[in-house]
Write a structure and sequence with these properties.
Elements lengths: L12 E5 L4 H12 L3 E6 L2 H15 L3 E5 L5 H15 L4 E4 L24 H29 L2 E6 L14 E2 L2 E2 L5 H20 L5 E7 L9 H9 L13 H8 L9 E4 L8
Parallel strand pairs: 1-2, 1-4, 2-3, 4-5, 5-8, 8-9
Antiparallel strand pairs: 6-7
The protein binds nicotinamide-adenine-dinucleotide.
Length: 273
């Protein structure tokens, strides 16, 4: 541990699944600024071009892209092989991949059907990415971490892994525009269980498992939604995407060395009352 800066992530090799997403890309940029070596692994290369190409050029930063499908074990194994070939080691893995319905027009409206009409294929797809994906990542990564006898796997939860949604906040002008789907909530409750299971299962090793639980990030939501969402929090606002950077740096650094099986909750006080 660097004694002068306990939050240092300098030279740590960090692999971020879902690293092209809203939160994953923010983590990637923050951690590379802190001198970590960042491997962005995502299904969507297009988002890498959008989110990182200008950033890489302007800041002269080394961020590397690996195409991966977290629902496919071979694809994760391939990705790990390439990262190890490039850097010779891997210190921390963050799983920020998810099927999380974003609030933009392109999005498939089917995902927002009422509970009674919710398509079973959407339920399956969501659980496959959010839970089976997390399981496969853990299975592949612990093999390597067991070999080097250390390592840290960080999954990303949600305030919807702690409480059920109030569907009323998704109402616009008296009409229920969309419903937050059950699969998202189930997968976020489930990831807490998986995190605890892994920490307990590997208790005799030095491999650590933790969860970071963020809450609603201000993005492309309507004014009305933001107002209703904000009223559920004690700080009376949604979060900004950069407000999780300190927490992820803490988790990736040696400062979190006594932490395993835990859930670091950052929700503006949403789940307090
Ligand atoms: N955005 C929020 O307001 C919010 C709030 C609370 C929790 N979270 C959690 O934070 C995490 C990140 O959320 P986000 O808002 O950045 O989501 P996002 O949709 O912007 O990013 C998710 C990323 O996962 C990738 N992905 C999806 N399926 C994949 C697959 N099969 N293989 C590889 N990559 C795949 C997507 O391409 C995308 O880049 C999620 O776990 C989410 O549940 C987000």
């Amino acid at each position: 541990m660097k004694k002068d800066n306990i939050l240092s992530v300098e030279d740590k090799v960090i692999l971020i699944f879902g690293g092209c997403g809203l939160i994953g890309s923010e983590f990637s940029k923050h951690l590379v600024n802190q001198k970590a070596k960042i491997c962005v692994a995502d299904l969507n290369k297009q988002n890498f071009t959008i989110n990182f190409n200008d950033y890489k050029k302007k800041n002269n930063k080394d961020i590397f892209f690996y195409k991966v499908n977290v629902t496919d074990r071979k694809s994760i194994e391939n990705c790990l092989r390439k990262v190890l070939k490039k850097f010779g080691k891997l210190d921390v893995v963050i799983n920020a991949s998810a099927m999380n319905a974003p609030f933009d027009k392109k999005f498939n409206k089917k995902q927002f059907s009422s509970f009674e009409k919710y398509p079973i294929e959407m339920w399956k797809k969501s659980l496959e990415i959010n839970l089976t994906g997390a399981l496969l990542i853990a299975q592949v990564i612990v093999k390597y971490f067991s070999k080097i006898k250390k390592g840290h796997l960080i999954n990303i939860g949600s305030n919807y892994g702690l409480v059920a949604p109030d569907q009323g906040i998704y109402e616009e002008k008296g009409k229920q525009k969309l419903f937050k789907p059950a699969d998202y909530i189930v997968s976020k409750f489930g990831i807490i269980g998986l995190n605890k299971y892994l920490a307990a299962y590997f208790k005799k090793t030095k491999i650590r498992f933790n969860l970071l639980t963020p809450s609603g990030v201000e993005h492309k939501q309507t004014k009305n939604f933001k107002k209703k969402y904000s009223s559920k929090t004690l700080l009376n606002r949604m979060s900004f995407k950069h407000e999780y950077n300190g927490a992820i740096q803490f988790l990736c650094s040696d400062a979190s060395s006594y932490m395993t099986g835990s859930n670091l909750i950052i929700d503006g006080g949403w789940t307090v009352t």
